Amino acid sequence: MLSVLSYGRLVARAVIGGLSQTDSRDYSLVTASCGFGKDFRKGILKKGMCYGDDACFIARHRSADVLGVADGVGGWRDYGVDPSQFSGTLMKTCERLVKEGRFIPSNPVGVLTTSYYELLQNKVPLLGSSTACIVVLDRQSHRLHTANLGDSGFLVVRGGEVVHRSDEQQHYFNTPFQLSIAPPGAEGAAAPFSSSFDVQLGDIILTATDGLFDNMPDYMILQELKKLKNTNYESIQQTARSIAEQAHVLAYDPNYMSPFAQFACDNGLNVRGGKPDDITVLLSIVAEYTD
Question: Nearest to residue 280, comparing CAs of 51, 41, 58?
Fold first, then answer.
């Protein structure tokens, strides 16, 4: 039996050992983007960070790294509305809020909702709708906070395995939740799904629109991520491009049984092939923060 003194020493050692293992370093995200608009030339960005009707942003503040993707709903084109205007403005507004420090790292839903309500108050009427996914890394706490609405989303990969992923939100097959502004004032703002968890140095975070996830299953994405050997921007950019290019090719393969086609079959539809769509990929690695 341990004496009280011996037990106290063991406890003290455990506490000191635990404290010594605490990582006091700040973390950051090294992020690269790549994408393809289905109706535009390969890799060409429209004004702002937009691939077709998709949009994205990457922003830094002293307390956090923040990034996001949005997928403008193409059906608005039938009404003479450019779908990229809504998604692009939403992402640019999110980026501005972050750079101005008008956000709380632990509340990415707040970034989305504040941006959406700014769009509602826009002096120039803005019609459209969009899915959205926001990812925030709190540098000091090493926690990743996310908000996802619809079928854009993210994966967190550690040790070659997916350890976290977003939940897809759909009303029914191929009809995702979305933010929208529609006449006459029939705005829609579904509640985003939020999550929060710790990350580690070397974790890979892939944030993308459904153009990626509808055309590439996890195992293909993981195969591409194995090519990522270090945390420098050039390597991350090369891997992001490789993933986006492969998804783009598969999207136009009529004989490929894509995740989208499999999901369609599960819903009673006889579908085969890839899903031609805009593709946006943000690829990040959790690294030690440096000024």
Answer: 51
